């Protein structure tokens, strides 16, 4: 196949949002690195096997920063010359990651755990008091990660709901730029710019104040870097965790025997959380695009300099060569080398926090509601499919 012939259309359609597209399994067997075309017309190399995905995520010759060039292939709206840590290469990435990484150490995340558990308990208690039935999305899956990440940054709680619609638009998959995406990005940046100025005048005990101090006193962060990191943290820290909570709960209610065993043995929660992360299709197979800075061999294919590579995280997590019976949910799976949080220097800074939030959400649900179930037939759920993270608009539960 030449680079122009027979390019697949991506994203693929799955038979159900909780299932990976059938094409992933076929490609892992037959064409693990294959040419594809995105909905916005850009061409990429899809990479589907676990070992190849890890290579792509860790290879410094495959650049994240290059996607900020005006003519570069991209899946999400990324401003030319963006200063987001998400699209930086070393040495700029190394400097910024070292600075902001101090706020996400394992020790700091563990100090947050009691507050996250208390918040999850309050939210589930409120949910229990208003149901059954009660909507998991509105009562727990949205407010828990949104409140946690906004509290970390220092966003006043009355303002937190503003971010949901803005970040929804900014994480849409489709043609960019668009008036909706540009308008949402402008409103978010405007709000955060004002908040940064407030924190500069009246410092507080929050992450944004720490980062402002580091920039102002040490010259470590530019204005653009500070603003871009706050935006990235809000989007990644909210939407990804919301969707993972929803997908995790759906996976469990579809398997009541597993749910009962987990309710009876909460010591199994850490392993269960890892398996739910591996099993989840919340990201829809969309990974972070890289651009080759030079010719690179991936899975027996030569990716030429300037070409885009899309590592399919969800496909890698179903690789039969790494995960025995990969399409089965095994809550005690060990080992479980999933790449749900990425790999290499861009591995998710908030991985520890995400695990704490998902664990707290499931633990409090099991503690207060016991064995819960869907309050509507599964086919009645209305799925949000236009964004990077797929989930139902509502998830009514009974118990």
Automatic annotation (TrEMBL):
Q: Which UniProt keywords apply?
A: Heme, Iron, Metal-binding, Monooxygenase, Oxidoreductase
InterPro entries from the UniProt entry:
Cyt_P450, Cyt_P450_B, Cyt_P450_CS, Cyt_P450_sf
The UniProt entry, under SUPFAM superfamilies, shows:
Cytochrome P450
Q: Which PROSITE patterns match?
A: CYTOCHROME_P450 (PS00086)
Judging by the UniProt lineage, the source's domain of life is Bacteria
Q: Which first-to-last residue range defines the signal peptide?
A: none
Entry's Gene Ontology molecular function annotations: heme binding; iron ion binding; monooxygenase activity; oxidoreductase activity, acting on paired donors, with incorporation or reduction of molecular oxygen
Question: Which Pfam family is an annotated match for this chain, by its short name?
Answer: p450
Family of this protein = Belongs to the cytochrome P450 family.
Please state what the protein is called.
Cytochrome P450 dependent monooxygenase
């Amino acid at each position: 196949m030449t680079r122009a012939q027979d390019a697949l259309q991506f994203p693929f359609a799955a038979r159900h949002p909780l299932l990976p597209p059938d094409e992933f399994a076929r490609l892992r067997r037959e064409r693990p690195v294959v040419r594809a075309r995105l909905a916005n017309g850009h061409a990429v190399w899809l990479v589907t096997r676990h070992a190849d995905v890890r290579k792509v995520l860790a290879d410094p010759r495959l650049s994240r920063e290059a996607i900020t060039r005006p003519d570069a292939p991209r899946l999400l709206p990324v401003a030319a010359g963006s200063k987001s840590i998400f699209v930086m290469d070393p040495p700029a990435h190394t400097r910024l990651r070292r600075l902001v990484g101090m706020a996400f150490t394992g020790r700091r995340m563990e100090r947050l755990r009691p507050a996250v558990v208390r918040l999850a308990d309050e939210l589930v208690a409120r949910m229990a008091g208003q149901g059954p039935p009660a909507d998991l999305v509105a009562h727990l899956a949205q407010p828990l990660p949104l409140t946690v990440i906004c509290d970390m940054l220092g966003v006043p709680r009355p303002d937190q709901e503003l971010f949901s619609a803005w970040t929804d638009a900014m994480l849409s998959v489709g043609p960019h730029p668009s008036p909706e995406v540009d308008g949402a990005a402008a409103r978010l940046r405007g709000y955060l710019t004002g908040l940064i100025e407030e924190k500069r005048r009246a410092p507080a005990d929050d992450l944004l104040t720490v980062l402002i101090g580091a920039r102002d006193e040490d010259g470590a962060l530019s204005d653009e870097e500070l603003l871009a990191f706050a935006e990235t943290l809000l989007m990644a820290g909210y939407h990804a965790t919301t969707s993972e909570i929803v997908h995790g709960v759906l996976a469990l209610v579809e398997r009541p025997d597993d749910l009962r065993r987990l309710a009876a043995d909460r010591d199994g929660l850490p392993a269960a959380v890892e398996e739910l992360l591996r099993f989840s299709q919340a990201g829809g197979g969309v990974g972070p695009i890289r651009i080759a800075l030079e010719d690179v061999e991936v899975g027996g294919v030569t990716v030429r300099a300037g070409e885009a590579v899309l590592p399919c995280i969800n496909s890698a997590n179903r690789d039969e060569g790494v995960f025995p019976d990969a399409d089965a949910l095994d809550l005690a799976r060990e080992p479980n080398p999933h790449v749900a949080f990425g790999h290499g220097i861009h591995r998710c800074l908030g991985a520890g926090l995400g695990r704490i939030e998902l664990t707290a959400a499931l633990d409090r649900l099991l503690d207060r509601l016991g064995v819960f179930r869907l309050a509507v037939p599964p086919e009645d759920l209305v799925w949000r499919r236009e964004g990077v993270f797929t989930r139902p608009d509502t998830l009514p539960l009974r118990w």
